[in-house]
Amino acid sequence: MTPQHLSEVYRDYIACLNAQDWMNLGRFVHDDIRHNGRQLGLSGYRAMLENDFHQIPDLSFNIQLLISDPPYVSSRLLFDCTPKGEFLGLKIDGKRVSFAENVIYEFREDKIVQVWSVIDKPAIEAQLRG
């Protein structure tokens, strides 16, 4: 697995998310995926993502930074969206917010087996105050 190949797989995964192509999610996500230490499995991970799109109808994953060092990918994703109600415990109620997510993925056989994610919640809080 080369860095270039893994970067391409990751970009295809992001395209799958943005298309909400849930039938093909298993091409990119391992059956035993873990997210921030929790064992979700493919069905739980899919449910988490579907819920994200339900809460944020205009959700779009935008890669700002991508570093590939097999078997890991590190990415900074940017979001500019309007969550419908509550998001990350914050009452958003349709206000447009912009924030970043810093995430590291571990791949095995071209599929994501682990995800470590941190969302910049203080950036959202600052926008809600201002």
Describe the structure.
The protein has 130 residues and is of the alpha+beta class. It is built from three helices and eight strands. The chain has a six-stranded mixed sheet with strand order 2-1-8-7-4-3, sandwiched between helices. A two-stranded antiparallel ribbon has the order 5-6. The longest helix has 16 residues, at 3-18. The chain is globular, with a radius of gyration of 15 Å. The N and C termini lie far apart (46 Å). The relative contact order is 0.18.
Give the key terms.
130 residues; alpha+beta; six-stranded mixed beta sheet; two-stranded antiparallel sheet; 8 strands
Q: Can you summarize this structure?
A:
The protein is an alpha+beta fold and 130 residues long. It has helices spanning 3-18, 41-55, 121-129; strands at 29-35, 38-39, 62-69, 72-81, 86-87, 90-91, 97-108, 111-119.
Q: In one word, what is the shape?
A: globular
**Residues in helices, as a percent range:** 25-40%
Number of helical stretches of at least 4 residues: 3
The low-confidence runs, each spanning 5 or more residues with pLDDT under 50, are none
Strand content of the residues, in percent?
35-45%
Strand order of the largest sheet: 2-1-8-7-4-3
Order of helices and strands: HEEHEEEEEEH
* CA distance, first residue to last residue: 46 Å
**Biggest sheet overview:** 6 strands, mixed
Q: On the 0-100 scale, what is the average pLDDT?
A: 96
Number of strands: 8
Instruction: Provide the gyration radius in Å.
Output: 15 Å
Structural class: alpha+beta
